[in-house]
Amino acid sequence: DSGVTQTPKHLITATGQRVTLRCSPRSGDLSVYWYQQSLDQGLQFLIQYYNGEERAKGNILERFSAQQFPDLHSELNLSSLELGDSALYFCASSPWGGNSPLHFGNGTRLTVT
Amino acid sequence: DAKTTQPTSMDCAEGRAANLPCNHSTISGNEYVYWYRQIHSQGPQYIIHGLKNNETNEMASLIITEDRKSSTLILPHATLRDTAVYYCIVRDNNAGNMLTFGGGTRLMVKP
Fold it and tell me: How many angstroms away from the CA of A10 is the closest CA of chain B?
């Protein structure tokens, strides 16, 4: 158990809809990272937050947004969903700085029909 | 962050040591080498990391060459549950950066 909790585990929704994925980081970790893993692609970095502030952005679509709340949990919002958004979405957390590794949750599997 | 090169796939017999190589010839002085694995569709699991000295923990050993241009992850006694995709990643730790995943090595442990 990595200590990172993601909910829900599975999500099935229709095209055009909006969903919210939730991540609770490990106790004491201030930084949260979101990744997407599609069937035909590897793990793609989406966005990073540190203590409530956006820290880095990767290949995140404009239809996607995220935030980190004062209690450090994070949410990834996906809107105007398309079939191609079907993927595994992983959250990871780490303390800030240094060489501490990232620890990943077990992901949310999103299926868009 | 420096790029890494790993074999696409490898086989290993159960009970034998699995040695997974990684080339990172453009690694810079402040970049660490990290190893993760992903079993089926689970979240990537942290294994080990190091800067220049060899490292060992309960899961594996990491051997980094003296010039730091390559490394080897060693699973001393592979089991069927070690079948996974193994990722070697180099990361600049000066800014708490994210990890950039490549294609990894698909390790198949066979009975």
Answer: 12
